[in-house]
């Protein structure tokens, strides 16, 4: 009676490890790039949604609503959305948006706040705003038109 050996030979194991090493070497940079682009896409969309939310709150509540960065003119910091009465912000805070990654850059960085009037149009500033979100090689444009419309991936007409 003959006994058969069970398991893998050393050659089979070495070939498997070599194929796995090649797949990991090729796959990891692509995966890291995918993760960075996904994070950048999420953060730029969060800014877009925050701007839209502020506009809709102004329309729904019938008051001016302001979106203000937490750190002076840094739109990658915490964003606060709240009502405005007589030119100054009032309680309560409608929503707080989490800060973006430290490697993200949003321009313009000389804009202290954006304020919508009760009709959803821009009250401050009095010109259209073109945000440019950049993180690594990923860039996205977000336009805020005078009528208050927020355009993701484009500019105001």
Outline the structure in words.
By secondary structure, this protein is α+β, with helices and mostly antiparallel strands. The protein contains 1 helix and 9 strands. The strands form 2 sheets. A 5-stranded antiparallel beta sheet has the order 3-2-1-5-6, with helices on one face. Strand 2 (74-85) and strand 3 form a beta hairpin. The longest helix has 52 residues, at 10-61. The mean pLDDT is 90.
Q: Rg to the nearest angstrom? A: 25 Å
Q: Name the beta content range.
A: 35-45%
Q: Main sheet?
A: 5 strands, antiparallel
Distance between the termini: 86 Å
Question: What share of the residues lie within helices?
Answer: 25-40%
Q: Helical region count? A: 1
Mean residue pLDDT: 90
Enumerate the strands of the largest sheet in spatial order, edge to edge or round the barrel: 3-2-1-5-6
Shape: elongated
Order of helices and strands: HEEEEEEEEE
Low-confidence stretches: none
What quaternary form is this?
single chain
Category from helices, strands and their pairing: alpha+beta
For the secondary structure, the number of strands is: 9
Summed up, what is this model?
This protein has one helix at 10-61, and strands at 64-71, 74-85, 88-97, 105-107, 114-116, 122-124, 129-135, 138-144, 150-152.
Keywords, separated by commas or semicolons:
elongated, four-stranded antiparallel beta sheet, 157 residues, 1 helix, alpha+beta, 36% strand
What does the secondary structure layout of this molecule look like, with pairings?
Blueprint: H1 10-61, E1 64-71, E2 74-85, E3 88-97, E4 105-107, E5 114-116, E6 122-124, E7 129-135, E8 138-144, E9 150-152
Antiparallel strand pairs: 1-2, 1-5, 2-3, 4-7, 5-6, 7-8, 8-9
């Amino acid at each position: 009676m003959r006994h058969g050996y069970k398991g893998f030979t050393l050659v089979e194991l070495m070939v498997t490890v070599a194929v796995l090493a090649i797949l990991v070497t090729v796959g990891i940079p692509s995966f890291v790039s995918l993760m960075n682009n996904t994070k950048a896409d999420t953060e730029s969309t969060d800014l877009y949604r925050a701007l839209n939310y502020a506009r809709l709150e102004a329309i729904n509540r019938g008051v001016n609503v302001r979106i203000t960065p937490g750190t002076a003119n840094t739109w990658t910091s915490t964003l606060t959305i709240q009502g405005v009465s007589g030119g100054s912000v009032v309680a309560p805070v409608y929503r707080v948006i989490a800060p973006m990654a430290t490697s993200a850059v949003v321009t313009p960085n000389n804009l202290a706040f954006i304020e919508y009037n009760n009709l959803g149009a821009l009250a401050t500033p009095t010109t259209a705003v073109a945000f440019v979100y950049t993180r690594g090689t990923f860039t996205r444009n977000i336009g805020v038109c005078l009528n208050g419309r927020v355009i993701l991936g484009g500019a105001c007409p």
